[in-house]
Q: What sequence folds into this?
């Protein structure tokens, strides 16, 4: 027994080692960078704004609804995201310390509680202008409407917390700190667990005086209430005042002039120029809802405006801003931005050409709405758009098969778009084209007729749009006789068949399929939902103010996926928790959700991805956040739903409710999971997950994913930061225990495309977002187990003949790394002249074919083959490219010949001048040397331009002519023109003529000169030989 | 294994031995060879290769001499761009469009060259140099744990040094310079540390404007220590045909730029084939290569 024990231990240890998965973390995979292609054209919802003048500069902080905090130090000309490393990206409040503009407070979690709103995790503070942030607590607040700083003691801060939207919570109301955020006291709370603070204001001349609106609210998947349970039920909403810095609060809801309860949302603000003037907006039962004004610090009130844009959708618009210098000038952000100059009696619409759905105003004068940030320089008559905030809120994304492919997607309140995945000069805002209207969701090219795009507006308003004329036709399936309203989700699923071009699906409570571009729809399922009548009372949804926009439409199909292995296998998931599958093209359906272990009841099926390898396999994500459960749920079945296994273990690092799961198209162990807080990747079928953070991609919600079937790109739709593309994910497919265990290994699988050189776009100024292109050079990918710090890590490329074509600087990072090779030879040598010849600072492009890349890491050599292919868009044949390469090389060699000629001439000239300097000026030999030097220089000036001074001299000699020609040939991928061929011959002859003249001069003069020099005991002149000339080049 | 052991040790040790800036800096100096080896170097020359996009390459040379003289050269087609500082005066020659005489540096260039002139970098003898160094915590850099040091120079510019937790050498440096009130931010990755004369120096630099994927790379091929370098190499040459420069050079801080110092990026890809590479606009502001920046280049595009 004793003897065998160590043996057993050894076996166990070995087994454990052999089976221990190699750790894959964020940094293993994030070396594959991502490109954010925007767009800032649509931008996205802005929740809060603050700004301060730092001397002549206006510093602006923008709090976006789901894309972090953006800072400008130049009045909005440029912005940088400053909150990207924080775990949440939804912002509710931004406040700059009035005494120190480097101190900035951010309340995470927006307070404009629409169906798609994200969540926060407390209060953040930066003491260095947004560089670094510290979470100061209130982590369960979920959302924050306002932060107020006592201007006399900036360590005293009040936070207005509406609190959790989807569940009861005691963590709401008004919180106060007196130590800069170290400790907090809840100083005002509501009467129940669904009442929090909706707005708060401080009399800055007497910071102990505070007003706060409390708001009773709750959202569920199928309903929303602002106020109590029902339009006239009692609620916790009310208006409160404190005069002792928040220690005691008096409810002043019953003050003279205020409307009777029940109330919904409450906004309040103090006029700082006359703090007795207080405005409140109260969502009360019509016609008592509207604006109220007090001129005595809240004791008595008078009803003021209740125009359409004052009372419209209070849950979404409940903010009041008074001009700090004029107590009668009031702004109310709403569907339109409205402003009053008469103390709230009347309001004018000042929205101008802005997007609409406003949420905040900074005076004087910036506003934010559902379409981004807007500046007015004429007191709010007209607006400039901020074109540099790519906080766009995509719901879904798809791709087409164009070269290069396009990206399609719909956005919250910002329609449905087509954008370029790459474009010469970068993906500027104008490379995105609007294809529809309303809120946008699923958008696809018609796979059977790419001139058309399918898009939809909220509630299943599907249309088919002609890409060229933009003519659009509504194709929504309509109810039958006495069938009543069909239930289409806010974000109704449209699905393109992966197997049958042109076949598409859409879901209401029924699943529809069309084979004729939506002309006819076949209803291929019964009602697949729970059809729970309690969840179909949207006409009563909204609370005090009815709000039935289809955002609460429920008991609908939300996810559709047809199997790419068998078109008769179709999955349909519903928002009320059913997972249905048919194996006979829709004749019979089975609800298999009961087989999903550990899943809360009625979990919203957020995504189904039918497996790409086995027809019985499917992946599903479930989103339970509408019940207050923010955890990710993801499962896999391999038997048509009979059994399911969870993919996210309880100790997995995945955060946030799950929106999408995708199985890779090639490697079934490679999975992508998008949640409210980012993208997670598993290379082992879900055993381990690592967050993808390439190119510092922020923790924004990932709502949809596409893998381009041809280009192998991963296209990521974020809800708050636009579209990101990870170019060529084939290296991820190769990450397994074997590769991950190696010290270093090439993961090079995709041929590199020799993209045609092209130019596009134009100067845009600094105030535009431009999405980057994929590298135009060949991308080479490798993996290192550890960062390379000491010693050389070099890379070199070789042609088929084994000749070195150049070296490539390497990346040293741990995990996957990417470097690029230009696919060009080294630049030719160029004669020195008056100015640089930039066209000849590049080498000819090598022809398509297979090349070898060698990486040397210390003493180990790693080798891979790199295949280069021609741009699929080019019309050039292989012969054309060979002709281009041959002429390029001819010109390349001619440049080298020319350089040799000039260096030879210069050598003689410098030698002449050198000897000359050693002789008296009037010496007869000196005179002859001087003449000789001038003669030689004349020849040089036939070859190169020599006029200096830094101006456009227009001086063109053979060098400049040759440089132009060379550049024109090497930067066009195709057969050179006849003229270029002819010109090559002409320049070759012209250079030869000069060389001939120099040779003639040399044979005529040098011997004679050397004889002269010998008499003077000076060294003879020996012109440079080609061999000598080439040596230093080789050494270099 | 070593990392794992170190990680366990550091976990255990953490409450007792939290890293301080001084400890990290002294370990860094020890790793790279120690003060004796560094102090023994009075001058050095680094030469290597610059790589931009589309295969654009140039030779680069940097000469440095104590106490704070520096000359950086960018060699293309037999032309030499120079940026230099003699301890008082910063100047450049930007010859690539035909102008071959020296010019004063603009504000950003001047700040950059003064920073670069620090012979052994801002961490060595940082107190004596008036630099402030703070340890601001652990932060992973491209998958490698690093100690983050905030280095504030006398002029207010900030470097963040990310020091590898095993070897205490910087693997990344973030730079933030303030030019006319604007923050200019760059990131530089360092690697391929090799020893010459007992001093370990990085041979590989990769720099980009913060947030930009557009990287400029320098690969050092040779470092020569204690090469004889005349002071004249660092002094602004007089204009041809003009009186020589005064023997006492003006104080660097008084240098005023003659023209706006907005710099163009090095041509990382030939955006406009060939003719327009040099003359993309009528004002002649083509994609003109700027002089080498060893650590980072203020010329690159800003995040937009």
A:
């Amino acid at each position: 027994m004793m003897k065998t024990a160590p043996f057993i231990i050894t076996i166990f240890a070995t087994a454990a080692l052999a089976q221990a998965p190699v750790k894959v973390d964020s940094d293993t995979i994030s070396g594959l960078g991502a490109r954010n292609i925007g767009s800032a054209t649509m931008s996205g919802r802005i929740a809060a704004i603050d700004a301060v003048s730092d001397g002549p500069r206006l510093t602006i902080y923008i709090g976006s609804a789901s894309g972090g905090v953006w800072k400008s130090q130049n009045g909005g000309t440029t912005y940088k995201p400053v909150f990207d490393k924080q775990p949440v990206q939804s912002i509710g409040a931004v406040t700059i310390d009035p005494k120190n503009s480097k101190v900035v407070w951010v309340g995470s979690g927006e307070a404009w509680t629409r169906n798609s709103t994200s969540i926060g995790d407390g209060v953040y503070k930066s003491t260095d202008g947004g560089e670094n942030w510290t979470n100061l607590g209130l982590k369960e607040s979920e959302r924050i409407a306002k932060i107020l700083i006592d201007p006399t003691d900036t360590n005293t801060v009040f936070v207005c917390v509406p609190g959790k939207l989807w569940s009861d919570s005691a963590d709401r109301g008004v919180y106060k700190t007196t130590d800069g955020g170290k400790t907090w006291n809840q100083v005002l709370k509501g009467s129940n667990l669904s009442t929090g603070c909706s707005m708060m204001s401080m009399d800055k001349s007497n910071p102990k005086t505070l007003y706060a609106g409390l708001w009773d609210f709750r959202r569920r998947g199928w309903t929303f209430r602002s106020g109590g349970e029902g339009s006239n039920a009692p609620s916790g909403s009310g208006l409160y005042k404190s005069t002792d810095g928040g220690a005691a609060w008096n409810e002043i809801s019953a003050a003279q002039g205020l409307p009777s309860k029940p109330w919904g949302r409450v906004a309040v603000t103090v006029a700082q120029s006359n703090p007795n003037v207080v405005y409140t907006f109260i969502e009360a039962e019509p016609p008592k809802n509207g604006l109220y004004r007090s001129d005595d610090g809240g004791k008595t009130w008078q009803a003021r405006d209740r125009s359409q844009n004052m009372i419209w959708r209070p849950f979404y618009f409940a903010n009041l801003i008074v001009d700090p210098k004029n107590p009668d000038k009031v702004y109310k952000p709403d569907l339109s931005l409205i402003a009053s100059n008469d103390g709230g009696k009347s309001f004018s619409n000042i929205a101008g050409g802005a997007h609409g759905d406003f949420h905040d105003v900074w005076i004087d004068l910036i506003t934010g709405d559902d379409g981004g940030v807007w500046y007015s320089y004429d007191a709010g008559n007209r607006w400039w758009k901020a074109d540099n905030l790519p906080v766009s809120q995509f719901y879904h994304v798809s791709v087409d098969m164009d070269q290069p492919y396009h990206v399609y997607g719909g956005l919250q309140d910002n329609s449905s778009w087509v954008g370029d995945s790459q474009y010469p000069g970068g993906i500027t805002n104008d490379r995105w084209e609007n294809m529809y209207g309303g809120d946008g969701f699923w958008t696809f090219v018609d796979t059977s007729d790419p001139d058309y795009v399918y898009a939809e507006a909220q509630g299943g308003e599907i249309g088919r749009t002609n890409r060229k004329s933009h003519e659009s036709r509504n194709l929504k399936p309509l109810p039958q006789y006495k069938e009543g309203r069909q239930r289409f989700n806010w974000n109704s699923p449209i699905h393109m068949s992966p197997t049958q071009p042109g076949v598409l699906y859409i879901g209401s409570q029924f699943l529809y399929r069309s084979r004729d571009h939506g002309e006819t729809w076949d209803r291929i399922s019964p009602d697949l939902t729970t059809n729970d009548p309690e969840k179909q009372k949207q006409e009563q949804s909204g609370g005090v103010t009815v709000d039935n926009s289809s955002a609460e439409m429920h008991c609908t199909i939300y996810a559709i996926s047809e199997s790419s292995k068998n078109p008769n296998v179709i999955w349909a998931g519903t928002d009320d928790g059913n997972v249905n599958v048919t194996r006979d093209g829709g004749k019979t359906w089975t609800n298999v959700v009961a087989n999903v272990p550990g899943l809360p009841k009625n979990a919203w099926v957020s995504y189904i991805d039918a497996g790409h390898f086995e027809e019985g396999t499917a992946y599903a994500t479930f989103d339970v956040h509408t019940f207050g459960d923010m955890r990710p749920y993801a499962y896999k079945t391999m038997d048509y739903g009979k059994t399911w296994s969870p993919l996210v273990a309880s100790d997995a690092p995945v955060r946030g409710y799950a929106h999408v799961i995708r199985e890779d198209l090639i490697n079934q162990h490679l999975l992508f999971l998008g949640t409210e807080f980012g993208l997670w990747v598993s290379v082992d079928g879900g055993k381990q997950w690592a967050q993808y953070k390439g190119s510092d991609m922020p923790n924004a919600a990932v709502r949809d994913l596409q893998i381009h079937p041809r280009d192998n790109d991963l296209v990521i739709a974020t809800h708050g930061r636009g579209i990101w593309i990870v170019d060529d994910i084939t290296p991820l497919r190769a990450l397994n225990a074997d590769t991950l265990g190696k010290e270093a290994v090439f993961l090079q699988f995709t041929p590199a495309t020799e993209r045609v050189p092209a130019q596009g776009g134009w100067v845009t100024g600094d105030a535009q977002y431009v999405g980057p292109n994929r590298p135009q050079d060949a991308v080479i990918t490798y993996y290192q187990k550890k960062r390379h710090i000491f010693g050389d890590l070099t890379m070199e490329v070789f042609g088929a003949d084994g000749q070195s074509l150049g070296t490539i600087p390497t990346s040293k990072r741990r995990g996957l790394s990417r470097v690029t090779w230009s696919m060009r030879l080294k630049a030719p040598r160029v004669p020195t002249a008056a100015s640089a010849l930039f066209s000849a600072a590049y080498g000819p492009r090598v022809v398509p074919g297979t090349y070898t890349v060698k990486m040397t890491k210390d003493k180990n050599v790693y080798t891979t083959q790199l295949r280069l292919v021609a741009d699929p868009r080019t019309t050039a044949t292989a012969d054309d490219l060979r002709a281009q390469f041959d002429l390029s090389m001819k010109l390349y060699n001619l440049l080298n010949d020319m350089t040799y000629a000039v260096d030879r001439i210069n050598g003689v000239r410098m030698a002449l001048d050198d000897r000359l300097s050693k002789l008296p000026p009037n010496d007869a030999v000196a005179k002859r040397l001087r003449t000789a030097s001038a003669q030689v220089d004349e020849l040089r000036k036939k070859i190169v331009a020599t006029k200096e001074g830094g101006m456009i001299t227009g001086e063109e000699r053979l060098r400049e002519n040759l440089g132009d020609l060379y550049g024109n040939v090497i930067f066009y991928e195709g057969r050179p023109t006849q003229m270029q061929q002819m010109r090559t011959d002409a320049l070759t002859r012209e250079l030869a003529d000069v060389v001939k003249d120099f040779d003639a001069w040399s044979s005529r003069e040098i011997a004679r000169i050397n004889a002269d020099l010998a008499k003077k005991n000076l060294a003879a002149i020996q012109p440079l030989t080609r061999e000598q000339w080439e040596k230093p080049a080789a050494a270099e | 294994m070593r990392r794992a052991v170190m990680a366990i040790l550091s976990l255990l040790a953490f409450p007792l031995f939290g890293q301080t800036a001084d400890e990290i800096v002294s370990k860094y100096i020890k790793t790279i060879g120690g003060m004796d080896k560094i102090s023994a170097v009075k001058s050095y020359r680094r030469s290597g290769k610059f790589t931009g996009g589309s295969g654009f390459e140039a030779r680069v040379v940097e000469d440095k001499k104590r106490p704070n003289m520096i000359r950086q050269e960018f060699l293309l087609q037999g032309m030499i761009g120079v940026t230099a500082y003699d301890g008082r005066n910063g100047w450049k020659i930007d010859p690539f469009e035909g102008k071959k005489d020296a010019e004063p540096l603009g504000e950003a260039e001047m700040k950059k060259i003064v920073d670069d002139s620090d012979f052994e970098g801002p961490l060595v003898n940082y107190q004596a140099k008036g630099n402030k160094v703070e340890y601001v915590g652990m932060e992973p850099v491209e998958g490698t744990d690093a100690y983050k040091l905030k280095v504030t120079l006398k002029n207010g510019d900030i470097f963040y040094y990310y020091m590898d937790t095993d070897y205490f050498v910087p693997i990344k440096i973030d730079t933030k310079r303030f030019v006319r009130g604007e923050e200019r931010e760059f990131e530089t990755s360092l690697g391929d540390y090799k020893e010459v004369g007992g001093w370990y120096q990085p041979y590989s630099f990769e720099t980009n404007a913060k947030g930009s994927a557009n990287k400029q790379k320098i690969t050092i091929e040779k470092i020569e220590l204690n090469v004889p370098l005349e002071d004249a190499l660092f002094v602004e040459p007089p204009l041809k045909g003009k009186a020589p420069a005064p023997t006492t050079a003006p104080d660097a801080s008084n240098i005023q730029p003659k023209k706006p110092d907005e710099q163009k990026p090095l041509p990382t890809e030939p955006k406009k084939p060939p003719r327009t590479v040099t003359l993309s606009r009528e004002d002649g502001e083509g994609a003109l290569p700027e002089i080498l920046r060893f650590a980072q280049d203020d010329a690159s595009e800003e995040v937009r």
Summary: The radius of gyration of chain A is 35 Å. Chain A touches chain B through 87 residues (CB under 8 Å). The CA atoms of residues 743 and 785 of chain A lie 5 Å apart. The first strand of chain A starts at residue 34 and ends at 38.
